[in-house]
Amino acid sequence: SITLKHGAHRLGKRTDKQMQTWRNYGLGQFIHWGVYAIPGGHWEGKYYPGAAEWIRSWKEMPKEAYDNLYKQFNPEKFNARGWAKQAKEMGAKYVIITTKHHDGFCLWPSKYTDYTIAKSPYKKDIIGQLVDAYDAEGIDVYLYFSIIDWNHPGYRSSLKTEADRKEYEDFKTFTRNQLVELLERYPSTKGLWFDGSWDKAWIEQAEFADELGRELREMIPGLIIGSRFRADENGNRHFDTNGDMMGDYEQGWERKIPETIEDIHGNDWDCVMTIPENQWGYHSDWKGHVKTSNELIEMLVKSVSLDGNFVLNFGPDGEGNIRPEETKLAAEIGAWMDVNKEVVYGCGYLDWKKQDWGYYTVNRETGKKYMVVFNMPVSGALRVKVPDNTRPDKAYLLEQPESDITIEEIHRNEYFVHYKPMTPVKKPFVIVIETTESDADEGHYQKAKT
Ligand SMILES: COc1ccc([C@@H]2N[C@@H](C)[C@@H](O)[C@H]2O)cc1
């Protein structure tokens, strides 16, 4: 590997307490809220087919009209305590809240621009209310911040002229000032989730961004920042010139989930996921597939089974309501978590061969192993392949610890867990499997000579 001044500053996972807490969350909530929720994916009767929070970039949206929307932003239904309570009941352990999206509108009263909530009819600090409400529910708060800022005069996506460069220096100072301001105003923040950092102009700022990251980490010891924040001096993002991840966890899994443990390259990671195919901000007309709670629970369990966190996005409307579809899903996920949360919290990857019926998770402290079943085989026989010197002794339903499920040895290190549900299965369910680790005899299975 080559020597880098602004590459990864740490190899391997962080092992401090704050990062251990992050690693054990399992389930998080994303909140995308801003003035884009006012048009909600429409303008003058026309339907915007893109992601609602990007409507300003739509050729049918006059920039002037969009940039004046904040003058009508007065979400009277906004109830931070209600949102936090709903997130608690869903089972979210952390929340990521948009402080400023690409449009540059600040949901906190920043003193570095007038394009903020303080200048709207609503006036009050939205970020402050959410931080207090989620803190009160014991849900850790992380702040989303977009480097892209279409409102700031100094913002550039690329630096072509000397004038660009001069303007961009003001933008860099503004960006730093806002981030320092956010951490000063909300010191209970556990981390920053950066977005909009793919512009050439920002990629050229390896030294500035590295120094800014250092300054922010000094302000809040243990602060957690993902891989999307900065580039190294050769313009590499997420992974530096040597292939080492920059930041504390990988932020590449947006609306997608790794397939195998190899895909995560030994790094911590989060998957951030929308309920429709691709809407983060509020769109009043979701077209296409809206994910069910069974799909979302599977994504959650799949993420945990591969040592990641799953962060589900909510996009409140222009009045401050959480829409009915999201409320329903939060309740369904919460009902499942009420019964099964122990297969998520503090759990991660078990190095047993993945089987078709679902996913294994293991509690990192207790070693307790779980089979989370999504796909019942017609045979009722759940195949389990174990590593050498591991023998499954007992299996029982998490919901009925006294249930004793038959385990049949069918081959060397291979078993059938025989389970036929008495009633039709409508939600994923969990079987706890207990094992003995032994240097037992090789057993009596003979490999065929071929
Ligand atoms: C051009 O592709 C994208 C896709 C998504 C984004 C933003 N990242 C998500 C977390 C949302 O904030 C979305 O607007 C930005 C650019």
Task: Supply database-style keywords.
alpha/beta; 5-stranded antiparallel beta sheet; 9 helices; 18 strands; binds the ligand COc1ccc([C@@H]2N[C@@H](C)[C@@H](O)[C@H]2O)cc1
Task: Characterise this structure.
The chain is an alpha/beta fold and 450 residues long. The strands form four sheets. It has an eight-stranded parallel beta sheet, sandwiched between helices. It has a five-stranded antiparallel beta sheet with strand order 11-12-13-18-15. A hairpin with a 2-residue loop joins strand 2 (42-43) and strand 3. The protein has helices spanning 17-23, 63-67, 80-90, 126-136, 162-185, 200-203, 206-219, 293-305, 324-340, and strands spanning 27-31, 42-43, 46-47, 94-100, 140-146, 191-195, 224-225, 250-254, 269-273, 308-314, 347-348, 358-363, 369-373, 381-385, 390-397, 406-411, 414-418, 429-437. Helix 3 (80-90) packs across helix 4, helix 3 (80-90) packs across helix 9 and helix 5 packs parallel to helix 7.
Gist of the model:
The protein has helices at residues 17-23, 63-67, 80-90, 126-136, 162-185, 200-203, 206-219, 293-305, 324-340, and strands at residues 27-31, 42-43, 46-47, 94-100, 140-146, 191-195, 224-225, 250-254, 269-273, 308-314, 347-348, 358-363, 369-373, 381-385, 390-397, 406-411, 414-418, 429-437. By secondary structure, the protein is α/β, with parallel strands linked by helices. Strands 7-6-5-4-1-10-9-8 form an 8-stranded parallel sheet, sandwiched between helices.
